[in-house]
Every structure is written in C-alpha cells, then in structure tokens.
TrEMBL record:
Keywords: Signal
Source organism superkingdom: Bacteria
Protein name: Lipoprotein
Disordered, as annotated region: 166-189
Residues in the signal sequence: 1-21
Organism: Streptomyces muensis
Length: 189
C-alpha cells in the first residue's frame, strides 16, 4: 500500500512540470502593463444639476468622496445645486451607509437655524461664511470644507476657497485634490 502512494505522488510530481511546459508553449506571449489613460474620475458619474460631491474622512485619514443626489432638478432651480445646500449636507455629517463604509467627519454639525452664506464666485475665488468656529478645526476638517466648496463651485475644483468662521477666523486655499489623488490643500490665514 505504501508503494502505491509513492507511485501516485511520483506521477503527480512529473505531471505538474509537464502541464506547465505544455501551457507555456501555447503560443501566447507575455506582455507588459499597457497604460490606457489616467485614473478614473468621479466627475464622470456626477450630474451637477442634482448631485452633490461631499468629502469625508476615510479610514486611512485621507479624504473620500461621496455623491449625494438631491433628486431631479426642478424648473425653479436650474443649474448646479447651490453651494449653501452642499455645505449644509457636508456639515450634517456622513449617513449610515457612509459610516458603514468607514467614513467619518472632522467637522461639527450645524445647529438648528444655522445657515451657510456663499458670496458669488469672482476672479477665481469664492467666499463662504460658516456658522461654526474655524480656529479649532484641524487640517482634515479644513480640507473637507475646501474641497467640497471648490468642487461645488467649479467642475474641476480649481478655485480659491476663502472660509470665514463665526469666530472671526478666516482661512483660504485650494483643494489640491485631483481625482484619484490625496494631496493636501494649501491653507493660509
């Protein structure tokens, strides 16, 4: 009985290299990785007339995007979703499904009656008045706000965002987050 196992093992030992040799000679040559364009863009799935792009903190500490749909556009609100509405959604925090995916926020929530005011964009710059204090916010919170506002105002996120808090503190910067990237925004006083 021991001999039978030994023969089966030897046969399997010989069969594996033979199969590899046969498969390797089937005429299919190895190829290298072929570049086929840049990284996928979340903008391909975003309809600015009724979608909002929100930036939340991912489990690794970076930022992740979430697309929220407001429903179909109505005749009285033609054009992109207002930035005030987008920032209010960000300050409402991640939803249950976002939290289940590990997304969190570094921002405080809005209180009842608190409103966000956005001055119209001019000269590549938008100013947003927030009903929260900016001074205690960390870099992640500032990045969440800056990127959410930048992409709400400009499809490519290429706009300077000035944040003004209720505590009199102001910060300005750009998102510096390209689709598929995790760069930090430039922020200043």
């Amino acid at each position: 009985m021991r001999r039978a196992r030994g023969r089966r093992g030897a046969a399997a030992f010989v069969a594996v290299p033979a199969a590899v040799a046969l498969l390797g000679g089937c005429g299919i040559q190895e190829t290298d990785v072929i570049e086929a364009g840049g990284p996928a863009s979340f903008q391909a799935f975003l309809d600015r007339d009724y979608d909002m792009l929100l930036f939340f903190r991912s489990p690794d500490g970076g930022l992740s995007t979430v697309i929220r749909t407001t429903g179909s556009p109505s005749a009285d609100t033609a054009g992109p979703v207002p930035t005030e509405k987008v920032v209010s959604a960000l300050l409402a925090g991640p939803r249950e499904e976002d939290r289940a995916a590990g997304l969190t926020t570094a921002l405080p929530t809005l209180g009842r009656g608190d409103t966000v005011k956005v001055e119209p964009a001019a000269n590549g710059r938008v100013t947003t008045h927030l009903p929260i204090a900016l001074k205690p916010l960390d870099d992640t919170a500032l990045r969440q706000l800056t990127c959410t506002i930048a992409y709400s105002q400009d499809a490519d996120g290429q706009i300077v965002v000035e944040l003004r808090g209720q505590d009199g503190t102001s910060r300005s910067g750009t998102c510096q987050l390209a689709p598929g990237g995790t760069s930090l925004p430039e922020t200043g006083d």
